[in-house]
Each structure stands twice: as C-alpha cells, then as structure tokens.
Amino acid sequence: MVLKEKHGVCYIHMDGASYHKRQINKDPTMKSNRAEIMNWLAKHGKDIDFTQVKTKLVKIIDEHRPKAEYHTQKIAVEYDHLLYLLLHIT
After folding, report:
1. Superkingdom of the source (predicted)?
2. What are the residue boundaries of the structural domains of the chain, listed by start?
3. Which of 10, 16, 85, 89 has CB atoms 3.0–4.6 Å from 81's, for a disulfide?
4. Rounded Cα gap, residues 3 and 87, in angstroms
C-alpha cells in the first residue's frame, strides 16, 4: 500500500544538510574545465565568443543560472508529497 493512499499527502520537513540537497542540474563553476563550461552554454542556447576568458564565461552562467532542482524534491513531487527545507541563517 502506498503511503499517500493510507495517510494522504505527507509533509516532509528536512534540514539543509548537504546530503538532503543533492542537486540534479549542477552548473559549471570556476573549478570546471573550459570544455564543460562551453558545453553548458551551448546546451542552454547562449551565444558565446570562444575567445572569452573562463572568468567571463562563468559570469555568463551566473547571470543565466536556472533554479536549482534537487533529488529529494523530485521524489517528493513524484509521489505527490510536500517537501519543506529549512534555511540555515548565519
């Protein structure tokens, strides 16, 4: 028996631990190699100048970065549950 059928929609509360926030759509960073950065930009349809330095390419990514998607979120949505992640405030 599926949890939802027995109890209805589940409200899942998680802290912001890194293992709860494994990202599906990771974007390249300065640690990524140039080829990964260029592939990401091409995949997302961004016009790029191949002669630009890596710093400028990463800046373009930062400006067009899509909303992060997480595995836990995907699973919760798949089974029609609600997921709440607590924010860490420092």
Report:
1. Eukaryota
2. 1-24+69-90, 26-65
3. 10
4. 27
Half-sphere exposure of 16 (CA within 13 A, CB side): 5
Residue 30 tokens, joined? 């300065």
20-57 residue pLDDT tens:
889 998 999 999 999 999 999 999 888 888 788 999 99
Per-residue pLDDT, 36: 93
Distance CA 35, CA 14 (A): 35
5: Cβ–Cβ under 8 A, 6 or more apart, which residues? none
Buried b (16+ CB within 10 A) or exposed e, 34-61: eeebbebbeeeeeeeeeeeeeeebbebb
**Using an 8 Å Cβ cutoff, are 74 and 21 in contact?**
no
pLDDT category at 87 given cuts 50, 70, 90 is: confident
